[in-house]
Specification:
Blueprint: H1 27-30, E1 34-36, E2 42-51, E3 58-65, E4 74-79, E5 84-86, E6 91-93, H2 98-101, E7 107-108, H3 118-128
Parallel strand pairs: 1-6
Antiparallel strand pairs: 1-2, 2-3, 3-4, 4-7, 5-6
Length: about 140
């Protein structure tokens, strides 16, 4: 079976996309994907994806919101399970309004944050009402 080495578009019949399938997507393609609220308003874009190296679980999607040319921009670690993909929008939905996200745990480019700190992680998961990614029941 042939596999494409050039991304989603192959030139030969039978080429299989490497970076996106019906159910799977590479982290590289997630970066830059827009995030919308329930009203369809664009809130920002996914800047990065944080994956637990031991379990392989996606821990957080880092939402970049606000600012101009990186100035005043806030980074919001979102538990992965608060996002749903909307094929019609070509982006992710989160059921929180923008004003609620403004008070969510976040950090600026000049702030030091330890996403591995379980206390900070609990603040994030408590805010969104989700179980922590490290919970063995998940």
């Amino acid at each position: 079976m042939a596999t494409s080495t050039t991304g989603t578009t192959g030139t030969r019949a039978g080429d299989i996309p490497r970076d996106e399938t019906h159910r799977l997507i590479s982290a590289e393609k997630v970066q830059g994907t827009p995030v919308y609220n329930a009203q369809g308003e664009k809130l920002g874009t996914i800047e990065d994806v944080m994956i637990d190296k031991i379990t392989g679980k996606v821990a957080y999607a880092i939402l970049s919101m606000g600012g101009f040319l990186g100035i005043g921009e806030r980074h919001h670690p979102l538990p992965w399970n608060v996002l749903t993909y909307d094929e019609n929008l070509g982006g992710y939905n989160i059921s929180l309004p923008a004003d609620r996200l403004k008070v969510a745990p976040s950090y600026g480019a000049d702030e030091q944050v330890d996403l591995n700190d379980r206390n900070y992680g609990r603040k994030i998961h408590d805010f969104y009402g989700t179980a922590p990614y490290w919970d063995p029941a998940i």
